[in-house]
Amino acid sequence: GAGVSQSPRYKVAKRGQDVALRCDPISGHVSLFWYQQALGQGPEFLTYFQNEAQLDKSGLPSDRFFAERPEGSVSTLKIQRTQQEDSAVYLCASRLVAGGPNTGELFFGEGSRLTVL
Amino acid sequence: AQKVTQAQTEISVVEKEDVTLDCVYETRDTTYYLFWYKQPPSGELVFLIRRNSFDEQNEISGRYSWNFQKSTSSFNFTITASQVVDSAVYFCALRGSTLGRLYFGRGTQLTVWP
Q1: Beta-bridge partners for A82
Q2: What separation in angstroms does the CA of B96 have from each of A74, B3, B16?
Q3: How far apart are CA A18 and CA B98, in angstroms?
């Protein structure tokens, strides 16, 4: 597709359930980011991939959060044993190149809204 | 540490008014980049502009203009002759030298009334 695609758009989970959120970046984009956006807040960085390598996972809030991008394209963010504080919009973004001054812009998907009851 | 502050939580204006959204940033990096994104109700963040720290020239794009001042660590965004379609949440963001992660402010909800 032309843009970053995320699924599901909406997910309701009971506390303790595991969830998986999918991101299809723009084809050929090397860099992929996950952000978490709580209600009324700005996006907060979770993790970053360059191709299949996870170069920065310092933003993951706990070991219940896990992300992967095994073939350097589609990425999945998994949250185990969900808790109410995990309720947020999870945004995926991709960029054509990896780094340097002219890295191009981040293109964001519409996000996956997770509600944990 | 990297930090972006958007002190204005909400702004309401009437169509055709000019409006300025404030952004103040903190960074110890000598090279950094500043961004503005627009987030309409659909949720997707739409890129508006990127500014390099070594280029303080102000920029105008149609009804949008940006004022970058390193002396005050500010990167303000002005919409001239606002329109209802400008209603959205606007985020200012900072990227330093670390692998490209963006640090976002809390956003300013702009509502333009007809």
Answers
A1: none
A2: 26, 10, 36
A3: 31
